[in-house]
Amino acid sequence: MAFLQTRAELYQTIRLFFAEKNVLEVETPVLSAAASCDLNLESFSTMCVADQLMYLQTSPEFAMKRLLAAGSGSIYQIAKSFRQSERGRFHNPEFTLLEWYRVGFSLPDLMEEMVELLMLCFGQNLAFRTVTYQQIVQQLTGLNPHRATLSELMEYAANQGHPEAVTICDGKLSNGLDYVFSQYVQPKLKKEIVYFVTDYPECMAMLSKLSGTQPVTANRFEVYFNNVELANGYEELTDAVEQKKRFQDELTERQQVGLANVPMDENLLAALAHGLPDCSGVALGLDRLLMLMTDAKSIDEVLTFPIDRA
Amino acid sequence: MATYSTNDFKSGLKIMLDNAPCTIVENEFVRPGKGPAFSRVRIRNLKTGRVIDRTFKSGETVDAADVIEKEMSYLYNDGEFWHFMDDETFEQVSGDATAVGDAAKWIKDQDKCTVTLWNGEPILVAAPNFVELEVTDTDPGLKGDTSGGGGKPATLETGAVVRIPLFVQIGEMIKVDTRTGEYSARVKS
Q1: What is the strand order of the sheet B82-85 is part of?
Q2: Which residue in chain B is spatially nearest to A178 when comparing CA positions?
Q3: Do B35 and A88 touch (CB under 8 A)?
Q4: Domain B130-187 has what CATH class?
Q5: pLDDT for B140
Q6: CATH 2.40.50.140 region(s) of chain B?
Q7: Using H for helix, E for strand and C for coil, what is the string for B98-115?
Q8: Which one of A30, A214, B122, B148 is most buried, by most CB atoms within 10 A?
Q9: Does the predicted model carry a pTM greater than 0.90?
Q10: ipTM of the assembly?
Q11: CATH class, B3-63 region
């Protein structure tokens, strides 16, 4: 029962943290008529009223951006999120995200705030290190993630004893990069250091802005601690046209690999067209954070009732 | 043939991989960043004992291996095959030197062994953790302290050679831990 106490205290810490910074706590619908188009995210769907299929959010991102466009100012939310077919030591199909958006923040500003929050949660000084995606990948594998082709990545995986990587990556460069990162980089990170990995390859931009530099990189960061992926942040893409294009590309790819078509979020696109203020946002997995705070071996240890007993 | 999807993966599951029966030692679900979901699996080849790491796309299926483990009594060795019997059904099976492996040097008739059967054929034999065997040869001249120290080599009735304390003599029974191949105790007759 100790973990109940820890979770309650963590939520209090978070709420106090943001209250002091005048970041508003919000609540947005968990059910939406639109879904994430992301190839690697599988939304739960349900029939809400007759014939209308609705989707459980995979994160509160879209709804929160609509609030930002409506002029909410900086906001945060502790939100239940749902992803089908994700179950393991670090995954439960229903999980809790802390997601927050800071109007006018650059990505480094947001990373600094993340450092502050993490130190508060762990109640101690932590060692932080910021590295670019290229630095860390090149250091640990010798591969240049901005230049490598999918076949070069797959050749590397094969040489490491995993020729089957090809079937997992579905001919997609970003999948190949993710595979190599999670197989050969993430497990080799130093456990005691909190890593901020920044400047992702362009093909991994997701919902983030692109840099004006060469090579073009995505203004995105991920946080890794104790070899666990803890958070994912973006300098948010504000361009409605570009966002729509990315959604459409994803839908085309879904069709190519035989995945179900899902409705893209027109409300989000309308909000972006209306005008999303320049902002940065990040999602932090609270169940994983609790795991690290309590030295839990499995996410089940910090959930009241894991999916098999829900 | 039965198949398993990656969702069924858990340690102890017996699957076919590269035409060999294997057992899953460890299974971890991985979903990197925004990337593809897969399972990172440690697998032991039951025939060779080799452990490898493999990854499987989420939802991928593999054939189940018809592998069972059974307690069986060792009967005899005919020079080529070792014969075992199921004490309940009296069914007999025989395994070659590859299957019996190291267990061959520890077992004698009536010992209860754990036999791994693939499609009904033994592929792996584990001797009992402890066996009691007679010392058939050792240097009788060496006497001395009883606290161990270096000890001396001894040949046992099955032909196995282990190090025993100096005070143990030919004809005595000793208990051996087959997992380490080390002398464990003298058995009082």
Answers
A1: B92-95, B82-85, B67-77, B112-118, B121-126
A2: B35
A3: no
A4: mainly beta
A5: 82
A6: 67-126, 130-187
A7: HHHHHHHHCCCCCCEEEE
A8: B122
A9: no
A10: 0.87
A11: mainly beta
